Amino acid sequence: MTRTADVDFLWCPEPVPDEVPVVQVYGWLVDDAGRVLVQDTGNRFNLPGGSPEPFDADLGATVAREAMEESQVTATDVGYLGYERVLRAGRPQALVRTVGRISEFHPRQPDPDGDRLFRRLMTSFAEAPGLLRWGPSGVAQAQAAARIAQRCWGVPVESPALPASYVD
Predict the structure, then answer these.
(1) CA distance to 19, 21, 77, 99, per residue, from 54 (Å)
(2) What whole-number distance in Å separates Cα of residue 80 and Cα of residue 78?
(3) Helical ranges in 1-90 per DSSP H
(4) Closest CA to 109 of 71, 75, 74
(5) Along the 168 residues of the chain, how does pLDDT read in single tens digits?
(6) Fewest CB within a 10 Å sphere: which of 69, 70, 96, 134?
(7) Where are the beta strands (DSSP E) in the chain?
(8) Are 164 and 124 in contact (CB under 8 A)?
(9) Where are the domains of the chain?
């Protein structure tokens, strides 16, 4: 478990319990070269994602929508990975993590929610947790996502076919 101020975080690689609300959904999105998308906001890094909306068919649809809005990538084959259990003031919430494929990069444009323009850094699964600063939880998530990407899609996650670079 990681503790930040008055908030506790715990990585849980199982389904979210019915009584725990899902407040955010993020995606470990991988390209065919075996690299994962990390958004560069200018002052920190993050995975694509956001809040589930009532019109999203499921959590995978939330990630696909947010990936298009924030990073202008088409995310496919999005599947559930686990969740970060967040405990604030004694009340649990879930930050869901998914894994999916990037099937297409589109021209960059500002996110309609806040008009921010994120850079798209494609990096290795090994480097991503350090950029995200998610500690041991981020490492566990990246390893789980990399295993799925390698097993299901055959991408070279151990040694990506291309070096880390921005796709702008």
Answers:
(1) 18, 13, 21, 21
(2) 7
(3) 59-71
(4) 71
(5) 555 556 678 999 999 999 999 999 999 999 999 999 999 999 999 999 999 999 999 999 999 999 999 999 999 999 999 999 998 888 899 999 999 999 999 999 999 988 999 999 999 999 999 999 999 999 999 999 999 999 999 999 999 999 999 998
(6) 69
(7) 2-4, 7-12, 22-30, 36-40, 45-46, 49-50, 73-88, 91-105, 119-123, 165-166
(8) yes
(9) 2-157
Pick the CATH number of 2-157 from 3.30.70.660, 3.40.50.150, 2.40.10.170, 3.90.79.10: 3.90.79.10
Structure tokens, 137 = 């939880």
Distance CA 33, CA 154 (A): 10
- Written as six digits, the tokens of 110 are 């500002």
Rounded CA separation 98/29 (Å): 8
Tokens of 158: 């151990």
Beta bridge partners of 19: none
Partners of 36 in the β-ladder: 30, 123
This prediction's pTM: 0.93
User: Torsions phi, psi of 86, nearest 5?
Assistant: -110, 130
